């Protein structure tokens, strides 16, 4: 008797979970053609999510009604920024690993930790300054009307930590 009850209960649970997982997922809203890219409907490589990276970049271009010439100039500026900061980003990654190693060593004194944190902070500050320079170069590509319109751009994913420009 016990064996048949367990068998019935197990069958019931299998049928129930199969039915629950067999339901199709909710369909995602369609992505406009200008936001589609070579990596799928998101429009950009997954690592390009950031302030004006990925879909946010496409929303910016659509919101400001950028010409193809403006888009090309901004793309060239972004490519130059990525090439210029590649080594700096690598150094930041190494410094973070070094910082983690030093931080988890119980023998490390406070002064060493603070010195490593200061080195990491200086590298991050350099990256932020270069990113600011890139945005200033982008600003030179925009018309005065487009610059004024930036403040009215709705904030969305990828822009929440970088309000405005």
Question: Which helices and strands, and how do they pair?
Answer:
Blueprint: H1 2-22, H2 55-64, H3 68-103, H4 110-141, H5 144-150
Q: Could you please describe the fold and organization of this structure?
A:
- By secondary structure, this protein is mainly alpha-helical.
- The protein has a domain at about 85-140.
- About 65% of the residues lie in helices and about 0% in strands.
- It is built from 5 helices and no strands.
- It has helices spanning about 1-20, 55-65, 70-105, 110-140, 145-150.
- It is flat.
- It starts with a helix and ends in a 15-residue tail after the last helix.
Keywords, separated by commas or semicolons:
165 residues, mainly alpha
Major sheet, described briefly? none
User: Based on CA inertia axes, which overall geometry fits?
Assistant: flat
Gyration radius (Cα, Å) is 25 Å
Number of helices: 5
The H/E string reads HHHHH
Q: Briefly note the structural class of the backbone.
A: mainly alpha
Q: pLDDT average, as an integer? A: 78
Number of strands: 0
First-residue to last-residue Cα separation: 72 Å
Query: How much β-strand is present in the residues?
Result: under 5%
Helix content: 55-70%
Low-pLDDT regions: 39-53, 157-165
């Amino acid at each position: 008797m016990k064996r048949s009850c367990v068998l019935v209960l197990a069958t019931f649970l299998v049928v129930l979970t199969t039915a629950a997982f067999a339901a199709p997922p909710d369909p995602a809203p369609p992505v406009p053609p200008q936001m589609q890219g070579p990596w799928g409907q998101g429009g950009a490589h997954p690592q390009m999510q950031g302030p004006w990276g990925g879909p946010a970049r496409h929303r910016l271009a659509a919101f400001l009604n950028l010409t193809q010439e403006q888009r090309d100039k901004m793309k060239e500026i972004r490519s130059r920024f990525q090439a210029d900061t590649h080594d700096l980003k690598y150094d930041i990654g190494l410094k973070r690993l070094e910082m983690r190693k030093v931080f988890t060593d119980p023998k490390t004194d406070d002064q060493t930790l603070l010195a490593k944190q200061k080195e990491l902070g200086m590298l991050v500050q350099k990256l932020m300054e270069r990113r600011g320079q890139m945005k200033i170069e982008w600003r030179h590509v925009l018309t005065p009307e487009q610059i004024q319109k930036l403040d009215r751009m709705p904030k969305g994913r990828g822009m929440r930590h970088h309000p405005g420009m």
